Amino acid sequence: MxxxxxxxSIRARFTLVSGIxxxxxxxxxxxxxxxxxxxxxxxxxxKETERVATDxxxxxxxxxxxxxxxxxxINLLQLVDDQGKVVAASTAAAGQSPLSTMRPPNDDxxxxxxxxxxxxxxxxxxxxxxxxxxxxxxxxxxxHFVYAGMAEPGMLSTHELELLTSAGVLAAAALAAxxxxxxxxxxxxxxxxxxxxxxxxxxxxLSMRVPEPPGCDEIAQLARTSNKTLARLEAAVExxxxxxxxxxxxxxxxxxxxxxxxxxxxxxxxxxxxxxxxTTALSTTERLQAIIDDLLVLARIRSAPPAAPEPIDLxxxxxxxxxxxxxxxxxxxxxxxxxxxxGNKIQLIGVLNNLLVNAQRHADTSVEVxxxxxxxxxxxxxxxxGPGIAPHDRERVFEPFIRLEDGRRRDPGGSxxxxxxxxxxxxxxxxxxxxxxxxxxxxxxxxxxxxxAGERTAAMVRTS
Length: 464
Description:
Largest sheet: 5 strands, antiparallel
Helix content: 40-55%
């Protein structure tokens, strides 16, 4: 039930919280201010009544006391004996009963207070005991008391002060709530624009971007991050579309050829050799299976979460793999000490085998593999002495199903996915693979980040 009453808007929530907190804070401030003003007014009246009463006491003479002549707002003044009889009084207090029964304590001759009656309302009073010396001279030691006061000001008696303070508290809290509503609304305005633009973005059109507000606050950073995410998403979707188009095109040809062969065998059973048809169909299905397996490997590398990396000595890895290649063009290796990276050993072996197979296929006499290191990268170079790759084709060969004419001639059954898989693996290892200039043949260069010195020592301890 309470959750339904809670505002759903962030703007409304902030405004409500700000209004409640402001109301509490201003209420505390208003209460303190009200008490301070109320006390200040009373203190001023008490000081004035005390001064008026003291002045009258100082002017008393032996005999019948004369009524005081008042020139201040303190208009109530009475001289009362210890029997409660009014001996003398000001004009406003004449003919009245004693203003108060309040008597100063024995240890203090002055008392302040407020006296309220149903008939006269409330009076702010000061009661002063006449000093013993004056009492002895004037009344033979009989105690007398002077009462000085005035009607309680309307600001105190009618609760006008409390009403004004309450109105000020409410006005201040309302102003704080409105300011919060305005400030939060202005701050969230870019969020509303981002939300509206995001609602317009669909899978069919990922080219739109959300508006980026100026500045470097959290909302601006969110907008920039969202646009970067949209750019990556657009690139991924476009890559997926191109990949699907290429895959469908590459699979259509062998499937169409297989369909044609089987259809001819059914339509012309006497003219078609069934064994030849089956052999050709089996070869076609093997090619389809190879393409599908490579596609699965490529998709798994791009989408599956990476396996836990392990420290790999590239020099030892290359030496072991080259030693297993006893057939084909000779492969020479050159390594420079221990070069350790973090990675997936099986995937890196697959990349190395793919490059060695390509190099041996196109080499004339030899293949050379070297491992070196720079300040922060391990560098693997695979070079052959074959015809090489033209500069304008050096990026194309890493695209799926791209096969140059020389490659089709040397390996008609290839899928055209080997280099695409190799680049995907190296990219997943935060490295690069490129084809660089070479005096003769093709020169593939792989760069992988080295393990930092501290991590390298820890890795050597774990593997030892």
